[in-house]
Amino acid sequence: MTLIYPVTSNSILPAPLSPAYKSSIKRAPQKPLIPMRHTLSELTGPVYGHETVREHDNDLTIQHKGEPLGERIIVHGYVLDEDGRGVPNTLVELWQANACGRYIHVVDQHPAPLDPNFTGAGRTQSDDKGYYKFITIKPGAYPWGNHHNAWRPAHIHFSVFGHSFVSRLVTQMYFPGDPLFPFDPIFNSVTDEKARARDDLVLRSRQHQAGMGAVLPLRHRPARPQRDADGDQVVPESKGITPSQTVGPYFKYGLTPNGEYAWNDPFTNNLVTPDVTGDRIRVEGIVYDGDGKPVPDCMLEIWQADAQGRFSDPQDKRALPNTSFKRFGRCGTRGNGGYVFDTIKPGVVPDPDGKPQAPHIVLAVFARGMLLHLYTRIYFDGEAGNAADPVLALVPADRRATLIAKRKAGGANAIYSLDIHLQGDNETVFFDV
Fold first, then answer.
1. DSSP calls for 203-271
2. Tens digits of per-residue pLDDT, 294-306?
3. Of 73, 256, 343, 385, which has the highest C-beta tally within 10 A?
4. Any long-range contacts for 108-115 (C-beta under 8 Å, 24+ apart)?
5. Active site residue 142
6. Of 367, 91, 104, 103, which is closest to residue 247 (Cα–Cα)?
């Protein structure tokens, strides 16, 4: 099935800048996002990561020798598309605070006790109908420094993959009737009251004991029109999509543990394996905020074609993809804001009109203070195809350099450097996809 991703669906998403959420002030782009047509780079997406899901990864209450403290709950529901159809076999990741409102992340110094029997991270895969299920502990509220006497409502973080890179979702799920809702700028960044009240943002009670349910509509619809028994076209009303929320500052132990936390990595920053063909390269840089300060709590995800310019994905109908190359990587920035990916140089990918695009990597940026992740691209210095690339042509000439990684001298494998500026005179070009 060919899928489309209507831009109008994004109207429900929070604005990048929400002044009441103070961290967004220096991390929201100040320049307009540049609209672009979706190409195979955007319409395809990761088709792996599921092999890292172990048998009981969805039960956060049995990961240690003893039982965790707190109210045990079941969180379950469906991952759906915009027309209400289940999205099968998709990866759902979860992380949260313990019953006292404390994360195990080293940065969380809230004076509440850690629970030695609760890590607060889990993952699962939706079934053939899009159904998912977690067993966990109801998290506690906790104080934060946004404003005087600020407390975050109890919530659970979700990370969901759909059929493509542009249907990627990071959000937060809340509990009904929380008295902290009126005072929380992150929850209220979703300005549509009906969207906040739906069961894709606020967990709803289910019939069985301590069960909570969340439906997660992702962005996509079939490209071909549906027809009734008489052959007449039927256009179902869109069910809408789940609003995004910030990844927050404490994602590392759940999404990028990298050996520092007792949780296995579903993805890493090294895409190179012995059976992968192509020129090996390293892409590195530093992420900066609007004050020019490094961002130490940023997560970056990349998606790219193989060396032949192909994707191992049903949306790419061309033959001979390199199926041993996984194409997707993830890393968290270090304390100095630095990131690094080891991968191979991607090949040329056609645009919707068949015109060649210069070799590029699609990059998604997530961070505390960012209510909606940002999409950009990494191109490579010295590529002849850059001059005619149809996406680069959309970018004002004086800003194209923010997308082109510079090659460093020396080394057996090429090293490219590209810094990401969330704001400022050198603000990176971000795309409206």
1. -EE-SSTTEEE--EE-S-EESSPEE-TTS-EE-PPP---PPP----S--HHHH--TTSSSS--SS-SB-
2. 999 999 999 999 9
3. 343
4. 108/250, 110/142, 110/143, 112/140, 112/142, 115/68, 115/69, 115/70
5. yes
6. 367
**Which of helix, strand or coil describes residue 415?**
strand
Tokens matching residue 151? 């407390």
- Contact criterion met (CB below 8 Å) for 157 and 124: no
Residue of 76, 85, 123, 155 marked catalytic: 155
Catalytic residue among 105, 123, 157, 327: 157
Question: What global pTM score does this model have?
Answer: 0.91
- CA–CA dist 363, 375 (Å, integer): 6
Q: Is 34 helix (H, G, I), strand (E, B) or coil?
A: strand
- Which is more confident, 270 or 317? 270
Q: Is 152 a catalytic residue?
A: yes
**Does residue 157 have an active-site annotation?**
yes
**In this predicted structure, what is the pLDDT of residue 49?**
61
Let me know if 155 is a catalytic residue: yes
Residue 103 annotated in active site: yes
User: With contact defined as beta carbons under 8 Å apart, do 320 and 259 qualify?
Assistant: no
Residue with tokens 């809230």: 110
| Residue of 155, 162, 157 lying closest to 141 (CA atoms) | 155
- C-beta separation of 218 from 241 below 8 A: yes
In which residue are the tokens 């759902």 written?
92
Q: Give the 3-state secondary structure of residue 384.
A: helix
Average pLDDT over residues 124-137: 94
Residue 11 DSSP one-character state = G
**Phi, then psi, of 399 in degrees rounded to 5:** -115, -5
Q: Which of 5, 21, 78, 103 is catalytic?
A: 103
Which amino acid would we find at residue 295?
V
Over residues 41-72, the pLDDT tens digits come to 999 988 666 677 888 899 999 999 999 999 99
Burial pattern 390-404, b for ≥16 Cβ within 10 A else e, equals bbbeebeeeebebbb
CA distance 149 to 168: 33
d(CA 259, CA 232): 56
